[in-house]
Automatic annotation (TrEMBL):
The active site is at 541 (proton donor), 584 (proton acceptor). It comes from the Eukaryota. The keyword Nucleotide-binding does not apply. GO terms for molecular function: flavin adenine dinucleotide binding; oxidoreductase activity, acting on CH-OH group of donors. Belongs to the GMC oxidoreductase family. Its cofactor is FAD. InterPro entries: FAD/NAD-bd_sf, GMC_OxRdtase, GMC_OxRdtase_N, GMC_OxRtase_C. Residues 94-117, 285-299 form the Glucose-methanol-choline oxidoreductase N-terminal domain. The lineage of its organism: Eukaryota, Fungi, Dikarya, Basidiomycota, Agaricomycotina. Keywords: FAD, Flavoprotein, Oxidoreductase, Signal. FAD binds at residues 104-107, 540-541. This is GMC oxidoreductase.
Length: 588
């Protein structure tokens, strides 16, 4: 059946049991699951376009061309960052059905047992690793890669570890550049174990990650493609695109709980509304969900009153506890001309681009269907001689937190400190990329490069996302408060030194000609620190702005994801996790 989306006149002023705001990972998953019950009606309102069959979305390497293009990417910006000399960082986010799963790197990772169990420790009964993993498996439709890939990449996959009947196609890259496995071997020589089962609750080590790609078509499997596209024929599922929700409409009430009666949205410049018979679910992502609550009168009085918004639920946690993985593309080396490795740099050769385009058209794996896969999650204790010193310094900082620090944040830091001290809990991620990155020295035509991206995996700084205007089309002020805690930078400095050292170990050593970025001018800790700050970026995993925590600890939703003080509003997206996990977040 040809996919059909709703038209505005088919939904405006109508009543649906569930109205979901935002058709990204959370929204698509939920709309599909709720509409399995044919007795209820579900409306999904998405601000962006449908992008059905769009080559920029489908092609695994197409995401590079989506960044900065308003039809695909919200292109949010932070406010100037104090600790980055006023620098503003762009936060790409997917716009359109599929949300950020249209523009992400597709890497599929599962969180660790200890970090998910921490959500339960923070006051959320039932939110633990075992219960989460059941649902993660339910999402997966895992397919083995071909044998030659298993041999070349030295994969030891237990297919039983993955789900097989879910909607999200999942496989390992069907194309081997040789770069990732070479870097992994070099790390093994340095004592970092090659982990063969990172899906089992402990992901510390160096390993190869699968991705949400359909192995038959070699196309991206977004949350929309997996969850909604096959179900668009359902009579009870309605999807309206280019419908930007401005606020939740609440029944008049003098006291809690308040009840949502519908949603207001803007479509082609006009304002419309729909009615909700049962619930309104906000799934607009960590950056937009708090905005919708605040514009509806649910949030901190200190934020809402100055803007003249009538406070319906005083909920100071909305838009706070913002957590981020920080990344830095900081190390690149040039490969020897005869190194038997392939890199994305080769696509700048028109003849090779043509060849790989033909492969892709024939559904054969090649550089255009490349999937990022080479990752390593490393504990400070494994990569740095300064680990004890850094941990002790940080322990001291946490013991002397400012008196105004809320009990909720204190409890989170206590858990994070336990993780930091645990030598088998990783503290950073180093991703191997077969491509040039960096800005000090430029790429030379015809050369190939390996680079390492560094990222923190715990967030020690806390930020906010609050509205500054009653205009729904104006973005909130996004303040991640980058580097508010020294530890984020301390970890990245050690990660940088470790990554730089990789090229001194075989087999990588023989294939590397020379370091290109940053180069020999950056060597002391102080220089490395400045270099990282200069190149500091988001890792696009912003979370926790509508945290699931006890209300008195800054919580916005309870363990059933219902917004405190309301009878029928829930939040379902990355904004609810109270403590960010170390892995990539689409599977959470
Ligand atoms: C560039 C990038 C790379 C990433 N790489 C990876 C990766 O390799 N692996 C991984 O696991 N994770 C990755 N992630 C993270 C992952 O994609 C997110 O964790 C996930 O998409 C979050 O899901 P969500 O539902 O919270 O938000 P989203 O998926 O962002 O969905 C939010 C949706 O709400 C819509 N919306 C917003 N405001 C409104 C409104 N007012 N009205 C209606 N609709 C609205 C948006 O258009 C969007 O469709 C990446 C993210 C980005 C941005």
């Amino acid at each position: 059946m040809a996919p059909t989306l709703s038209k505005v006149n088919e939904v405006s002023d109508k009543t649906f049991d569930y109205v979901i705001i935002g058709g990204g990972v959370g929204g698509c998953t939920l709309a599909s699951r709720l509409s399995e019950n044919s007795d209820v009606t579900v409306l999904l309102l998405e601000a962006g376009k449908a992008h059905i069959g769009d080559p920029l979305v489908d092609l695994p390497t197409g995401f590079f061309r989506q960044y900065g293009v308003p039809d695909y990417d919200w292109g949010f910006q932070t406010i100037p960052q104090k600790k980055l000399d006023g620098k503003v960082i762009t936060w790409n986010r997917g716009k359109g059905l599929g949300g950020s799963s249209n523009i992400n790197y597709m890497v599929w990772t599962r969180p660790g047992r200890v970090e998910v169990d921490a959500w339960e420790r923070l006051g959320n009964p039932g939110w633990n690793y075992d219960s989460l993993i059941k649902y993660v498996k339910k999402a997966e439709n895992f397919q083995m890669p071909p044998n030659d890939i298993i041999e070349r990449e030295l994969l030891a996959i237990d297919p039983e570890g993955f789900g097989k009947d879910g909607p999200l196609s999942l496989t390992y890259s069907h194309f081997s550049t040789g770069v990732e496995v070479t870097a992994r071997k070099a790390m093994e020589v340095r004592g970092i174990p090659h982990l063969t089962d990172p899906e089992n609750g402990n992901y510390s080590g160096a390993w190869s990650a699968p991705a949400t790609v359909n192995p038959l078509t070699l196309t991206r499997c977004s949350a929309f493609v997996g969850y909604i596209l096959p179900n668009l024929g359902r009579k009870n599922l309605f999807v309206l695109t280019e419908a930007y929700s401005s606020r939740i409409l609440l029944e008049d009430s003098k006291s809690e709980p308040v009840t949502a009666k519908g949603v207001e949205f803007i479509h082609e410049g006009k304002t419309y509304s729909v009615k909700a018979a049962k619930e309104v679910i906000v799934s607009a992502g960590s950056l937009k969900s708090p905005q919708i609550l605040e514009l509806s009168g649910i949030g901190d009085t200190n934020v809402l009153c100055p803007l003249g918004i009538n406070v319906k639920v005083d909920l100071p946690g909305v838009g706070t506890n913002l957590q981020e993985h920080i990344s830095s593309f900081t190390f690149t080396a040039e490969l020897e001309d005869d190194a038997p490795l392939m890199t994305l740099d080769m696509l700048s050769d028109p003849a090779l681009l043509q060849k790989h385009t033909e492969y892709y058209e024939q559904k054969l794996p090649g550089l255009l269907s490349y999937q990022a896969s080479g990752t390593s999650y490393l504990s400070l204790q494994y990569i740095s001689e300064k680990a004890d010193e850094i941990i002790a310094k940080h322990e001291k900082t946490l013991a002397a937190l400012p008196s105004g620090t809320s009990p909720g944040i204190r409890e989170q830091f206590k858990i994070q400190l336990d993780h930091l001290k645990h030598k088998d809990m990783p503290d950073c991620e180093i991703i191997t990329n077969p491509v040039f990155t960096g800005s000090i020295n430029k790429a030379e035509p015809g050369k190939r490069y390996i680079s390492f991206l560094l990222a923190t995996i715990a967030a020690w700084s806390r930020g906010t996302a609050h509205i500054t205007s009653t205009d729904p089309l104006r973005n909130s002020a996004f303040d991640p408060n980058y580097l508010d805690h020294d530890l984020d930078l301390d970890i990245l400095i050690e990660a940088f030194k470790f990554a730089r050292g990789n090229i001194d170990y075989e087999p990588l050593k023989s294939y590397v000609f020379k370091e290109v970025n940053p180069g020999s001018t950056i060597s002391t800790d102080e220089e490395i620190k400045d270099h990282i700050k200069e190149n500091l970026n988001t890792f696009w995993h912003t979370s926790s702005t509508c945290s699931m925590l006890p209300r008195e600890h800054g919580g916005v939703v309870d363990p059933s994801l219902k917004v405190y003080g309301t009878s029928n509003i829930r939040v379902c997206d990355l904004s609810v996790i109270p403590l960010i996990v170390g892995v990539h977040t689409q599977g959470v």
